[in-house]
Amino acid sequence: MPSSTSTLTYESRSQTHPTAAGRKLLQIISQKRTNLCLSIDHTDPDKILTLVQKLGPKICLLKTHIDIISFSSTTTSTTIKSFTTKLQALAQEHTFMIFEDRKFADIGSTVQHQYRGGVYEIASWADITNAHSIPGPGIIRGLKEVADGIGEPRGLLLLAEMSSKGNLGGGEYQERTLAMARNKEWRGFVMGFIAMKEVGGGSGNDGEGGEEEDFIVMTPGVGLQVGGDGLGQQYRTPEEVVGRDGCDVVIVGRGIVGADDPVAVAEVYRERSWEAYEGRVKNG
Ligand code: 6AU
């Protein structure tokens, strides 16, 4: 059953979302008419930049795994810093946000170093990142303290459930993650979840979050057909994910990056995911 949040338009949610990063993302989604996040899981930095230049107009969000990129083996002199600076320039040019899929999972003090420093300096260039809830609230507090010092909107997604077969998320784990996210202390920082269906949403689900609750749900494991990858990944279609299960942003990696014509295939994902959203809002 679609609930109150999933039947609202992205545009109306962009006015009221409790996080600045969420408002910005919802505005981009609504203006560009795309709820597609590209997961660019390539290892060559130059290939990534070339692909992002082509696919930028199709997406609201670019998801990176900065630690899988081979900066040392590149034939050019691309450094981590110059790469992230170029990504930010592309994000400006094509109006999308950047999500570093770091999946933080340690105590607050350690994740602060991982988020702010190290070789990647994630907080300085990624608008959005994500974290497991398993360490407890200290992980959110630690990340938020770093984000508060940046001076640009920064948003956090908590993993409430994963797309992979046999994962331990969902159910009670998801309920406890939701309860953690609802703490007023990080109301302007925790923007939503990685999950397989709508989470929270005030009166629509368990009614505990209040009328104004709005968590953006981003969902990986999306393909043009139902299937898997032989390593546990499970794919569902945009119609199932957005139309039936109330998710807001579809995350697509190999379905686009591995295609012969990534731009044409990205357009199919964009169109199907957008139409699924329009149908959901209309029928809600
Ligand atoms: O479309 P794919 O299967 O090629 O890529 C899916 C991407 C990968 C995963 O690291 C990521 O989505 N992912 C996540 C995220 C985004 O946090 C969670 C999850 O449960 N499943 C998943 O695949 O980059």
Automatic annotation (TrEMBL):
Keywords of the record: Decarboxylase, Lyase, Pyrimidine biosynthesis
EC number: 4.1.1.23
Reactions performed catalytically: orotidine 5'-phosphate + H(+) = UMP + CO2
Short name of any one Pfam family annotated for the protein: OMPdecase
Active site positions: 101, 103, 106
UniProt enzyme class: lyase
NCBIfam families: pyrF
Protein name: Orotidine 5'-phosphate decarboxylase
Organism: Tuber borchii
